[in-house]
Design brief:
12 helices, Metallo-beta-lactamase, Chain A, 14 strands, about 25% strand, globular
Length: about 325
């Protein structure tokens, strides 16, 4: 039986870049083993100025309740020294520190939708980054009412913020947070590191909800957010190098909710708002992605073995399948 790809992982952007350049030049990787290896490597190896990306799964649980073995939903893309955060579940700042990331290097934050497991620490992340060493503006992107949420958070912590600005000499926090509300799919932002595009996905009853695509200098990475099977997501992820997709085990859900007072209603909601593991691989196949990373596992209690997820998804996807875990680096 083929084993699931899980645990700590690191795939270097240099390897990806070299392989693509070799293919573009009509050369095979085996050529590097020949006597001309040095000459060929000099031709096809990216220059030191090429920016490479890292994808870090900061939290891979799904749902609002704390889990023993997984942190709340959050991800980071790192390009050069700049950090782009996708979703801000509880504890995201600590997960970033555990991953060795400098909070002061946060450049932008993206919220897929306003469920508490995805935005509970939106304000806290920025506050804690500022209390660490954040001194430059951070753009934040997400559905309404992101601007009002920002205002209310600053109001809630105004006392602490004022003390630190006056007593510790920190720069004013409010001007460093620049919220942008998005209401429809399309281009979101573009800087010298990434181009970000959003697509509307269905996650009833929450609306709008978004998936995001990040086109980095070396590869493309797509995050499904929370979504039922979606043609919009398939189009957004078309040909992407990596698709990070939520997953739900409906049979396990039946066992978990059977004693709940609202079991039928909860089961109906979960089925209507999420993607069953039997369909995730089909979505990745239709989109033609190279690597599928399972994320946002529901249910999270009790933990389900990696092999269960792998065996349910792999028959529907011929590419590389990774069972996501907290602090995994890709």
């Amino acid at each position: 039986m083929e084993q699931p790809y899980s645990g700590s992982a690191c795939v270097t952007a240099v390897d990806h870049g070299r392989r693509r350049l070799l293919q573009a030049a009509g050369l095979s990787l085996a050529a590097l083993a020949t006597g001309n290896a040095r000459r060929l490597a000099a031709v096809v190896t990216p220059t030191n100025s090429t920016k490479h990306s890292r994808l870090i799964l900061l939290g891979t649980a799904g749902g609002p309740t704390p889990k023993v073995d997984r942190s709340a939903p959050a991800n980071a893309i790192v390009v050069g020294d700049d950090i782009y955060v996708i979703d801000c579940g509880n504890g995201v700042a600590r997960q970033m520190v555990k991953a060795g990331l400098d909070l002061g290097r946060i450049r932008d934050v993206f919220i897929t939708h306003h469920h508490s497991d995805h935005d509970a620490d939106y304000g806290n992340l920025l506050l804690l980054a500022w209390e660490t060493d954040l001194k430059t503006p951070v753009g934040t992107y997400g559905p309404p009412p992101l601007k009002r949420m920002t205002e209310l958070f600053l109001e809630m912590d105004a006392y602490d913020i004022h003390i630190r600005e006056t007593d510790e000499g920190r720069p004013p926090l409010a001007p460093l947070i620049v919220p942008h509300e998005i209401t429809h799919g399309g281009p979101v932002m573009h800087d010298d590191n990434v181009k970000v595009t959003a697509a509307l996905v269905q996650h009833p009853p929450v609306t709008p909800a978004f998936a995001y695509r990040f086109d980095c200098p070396d590869r493309s990475i797509v995050f499904s957010g929370d979504a039922r099977p979606s043609q919009n997501l398939i189009e957004l992820a078309r040909g992407a190098d990596i698709l990070v997709h939520e997953v739900i085990d409906l049979q396990a859900i039946d066992k978990v909710v059977k004693d709940e007072a609202m079991a039928t209603r909860l089961r109906q909601h979960l089925e209507a708002a999420h993607t069953p593991m039997s369909e995730v691989g089909q979505i990745a196949t239709k989109a033609g992605v190279k690597t599928l990373v399972l994320n946002h596992f529901v249910p999270g209690t009790p933990p389900i073995p990696d092999q269960v997820w792998y065996d349910a998804v792999k028959p529907h996807f011929n590419g590389r399948l990774i069972i996501g875990h907290d602090l995994m680096v890709l």
